[in-house]
Amino acid sequence: MRERKKRELLTEVELEFMNELWALGEGTVRDVLSQLPEDRNLAYTSAATILRILEQKGFVTSRKSGKQHVYKPSLAKDTYQSRSLKDLSMKLFDDTPASLVARLVNDDELTEEALGQIRALVDRRLKNDTG
Q: Whole-model pTM?
């Protein structure tokens, strides 16, 4: 079996679990399951398998606490967000971040408030880069 790269992106289910772990800080299989929507109806064994896969991929670490494993993210959420955006920019926007941002700001559903926040972030970044 080939060794999996730690830089892999998460599947939708894995990302769902990581979001819960990022919110919790750390947790057992039951802790993560309790955070999922009630209609999710995921079996304990399936959840445990997902967390083991995340550990194999290097996204979480675990430690034994009694009979349970306690899982903790080994990758910060903002680090994963950056990785995902770089991948999206490369694959869908021809590795041109300006195209990605243009698509975002041209979205008709984007409010003036959100545009103002984006402008403030860009202004702050420009000021920090030149100042």
A: 0.81
